[in-house]
Amino acid sequence: MPDDVSLTAGLDYTSTGTWEAERVYTQENLTAADEAWLALNIDYAFVALPTDQAREMDLPASLRFPWDHNKDMYLLSSVHSVHCLQVLHRSNLEYRTNHTQTYTTEHLLHCLENIRLDLTCNADDTPRFVPRTAHESTVKTGVDQLRQCRSWDALEKWAKEHSACFNYHEFERKELEENVVYPAAWSFCGEGSEYLAQVQRFYGKGVDWVLKDGGTPDIDAIKAGKGKSPIPVHRAGGGGHQ
Question: What pTM did the predictor assign?
């Protein structure tokens, strides 16, 4: 078993997984599969790390965390690739439903290249078996075969412990509307966050006001050709920034 540990979150290859013939994201019910892709939550994509710690890790200077300028924000590479998968899925959904593409070809190629680089960087050398009936019909390789993995749950837990108060839906909405994303997309410091009071002061709101996620983009709206306007983020406490 590999014993190398990741340098940032301290992840090692202690989990096992399998390639499955059908999962929620590949099920025959395309509507349910589409909804599963849209429901993927990657709000933990950005982490806020103390600047001194980042320098000790030889990380380049990065975008400042808006609520603590002693911290820099970093986008986790594997979670960025999940974002890219969501972008590619959305493009496929719009193609299947004969609607205008939300993302440009350049953005799609950027995502394909990032996923390619992630794959070649990790260079997974697990030998996938090919069923001996492969000569008889089209088959899927490696079904139910065990593989050694790092724990995604552990990565998510570590990322949330270093939260940058990021909200993907707000980022997507601002980006697609060509609005400024900073600091709006990093303003979702929830109840209990040490930074919530600063966010409230920044937006001129009271102590009961907290930014809320408006939920996943509406699949019916996308199919109706309204994919460029994800559901707006709803805000508690009487309004919020635009």
Answer: 0.83
